[in-house]
Amino acid sequence: MNSRRERRKEELPGDALALSKRLGYRFRDPELLLEALTHASTGGKRSYERLEFLGDRVLGLVVADMLFRAFPKEPEGFLARRHAALVRQDSLALIAERLDLAPHLRLSAGEEEGGGRSNPAILADVCEAILGAVYLDGGLGAARSMIEPLWQPLLAADRRPPQDSKTALQEWAQGCGRPLPSYTETARAGSAHEPIFTVRVQVEGEEPAEGQGRSKRAAEQAAAGALLDRIKAEGKAE
Which residue among 7, 152, 194, 204 sits deepest, i.e. has the most Cβ atoms within 10 Å of its Cβ? Predict the structure, then answer.
């Protein structure tokens, strides 16, 4: 069994082997790493999508445990806000950048030309897929050993519980005596399995702002954040 695994290890392309070493994890089944790096556009039998689904859940569990232990006196609501911030696309894309995943992605020519290698959504997906691959290959302990040192700096960066942009914008509008913000989907692009939503937010008395995301909720958060940034820049809010 070990000799067969060693032979499969040698079959890893040089770039994937280098990535494996940088991750600090030696795959018993190297095919899992290759699958985690493969975009559906390549047309192969396997892509990272199933591993991404698994990795998302593994990451969520480990981060939840980290927060539960790091903030023993915080109520569930604050923990939930922290959790959402740590597992969102922006955080995953940042980790992917720190791991230098972009050069290792397996993309079709069309996806490559379309900027897929620098697409934050794809980088975030691949990051989750790698975590799923590590979990399948080595179990929860191996996944935890990879996740904790990568996410600990993000967890420690802001000791205050974050407030999501939609809630902050709603509270600002109410504080000004204005109606609640309204959100409208204005566009939808991308493929069926990787849609990109564009949403416009409107607050009475303010110019609307737009945001994009892989879900309507994410796009609404982005739009609210954009409007809040403008409001703050104009000195209308702290």
Answer: 194
